[in-house]
Amino acid sequence: MGAHIRITLDHLGCPAQLTDEKNAAFKRLALAAEGYCVQAGCRHRAAYADGVLRIFEVRNGGIALSAFVRAALAVELGDFTPPDRLLQETEALAGPVRRQTEGDKVSGG
């Protein structure tokens, strides 16, 4: 298994950084990183944990670390385009990486 880099963003308790929009963008960024893990067959725990300390795992040889960090900083500044672009690139390479969870299920009628 390839090595991973763990990246932690600490918001120092700043509630302005805990908006729903930013949470969703950070989750998309984590999914982009996870796509490379899925493709490589990595078997580790969730690649993302949210909250005041946001923890990501990024696989070496996946998303370039500089692109990942730029995307994370863009989200901090309110620009959600870079994570979306990275997720689209990952899904083009590895296929859909979204895992169905209770929150993702669509209720049928």
Topology:
Layout: E1 4-10, H1 20-40, E2 48-49, E3 53-59, H2 65-76, H3 81-94
Antiparallel strand pairs: 1-3, 2-3
Helix pairs in contact: 1-2, 1-3, 2-3
Shape: globular
Look at the structure and give the mean pLDDT.
Answer: 78
The share of residues in extended strands comes to 5-15%
Q: What order do the SSEs take from the amino end to the carboxyl end, as H and E?
A: EHEEHH
**β-strand number:** 3
> What portion of residues is helical?
40-55%
Question: Biggest β-sheet: count, sense, barrel?
Answer: 3 strands, antiparallel
Alpha-carbon distance between the termini? Answer: 43 Å
Count of alpha/pi helices: 3
Strand order across the biggest sheet?
1-3-2
Low-confidence stretches: 100-109
Q: Using the CA coordinates, give the radius of gyration.
A: 14 Å
Secondary structural class: alpha+beta
Describe this structure as you would to a colleague:
The chain has 109 residues and is α+β, with helices and mostly antiparallel strands. It is 43% helix and 15% strand. The chain has helices spanning 20-40, 65-76, 81-94, and strands spanning 4-10, 48-49, 53-59. It has a three-stranded antiparallel sheet with strand order 1-3-2. Residues 100-109 have low confidence and may be disordered.
